[in-house]
Write a structure and sequence with these properties.
Elements: E1 3-7, E2 10-13, E3 18-25, E4 34-39, E5 46-51, E6 58-60, E7 68-73, E8 78-83, E9 92-98, E10 108-113
Parallel strand pairs: 2-10
Antiparallel strand pairs: 1-3, 3-8, 4-5, 4-9, 5-6, 7-8, 9-10
Length: 114
Amino acid sequence: QVQLVESGGGLVQAGGSLRLSCAASGRTLISYGMGWFRQAPGKERAFVASINWTGVSTFYADSVKGRFTISRDMSTNTVFLQMNGLKPEDTAVYYCRTYGDVYWGQGTQVTVSS
């Protein structure tokens, strides 16, 4: 079993930055690819970014390319999402998840005001 806990969300003005963290417990994330997803009100959960288990390969949704960066720290069993140049359309609940055996966190709210 893996427990994932997201943090770092909040309210920010357009153009601002936030850094989300996803801390894992119960089992090491060393063999898991990891991803960030988001769900805006009235919309389906959508892919944002992913990183492979080595941290070498990353992928991004077109809507966040060049603004968001996913990274991981194996020593602390944590995955990060650095979000710069935030836009109101980035407002959503952000979730992290594992690939392979699928585990989800509870989500953290990000609200971007215009």
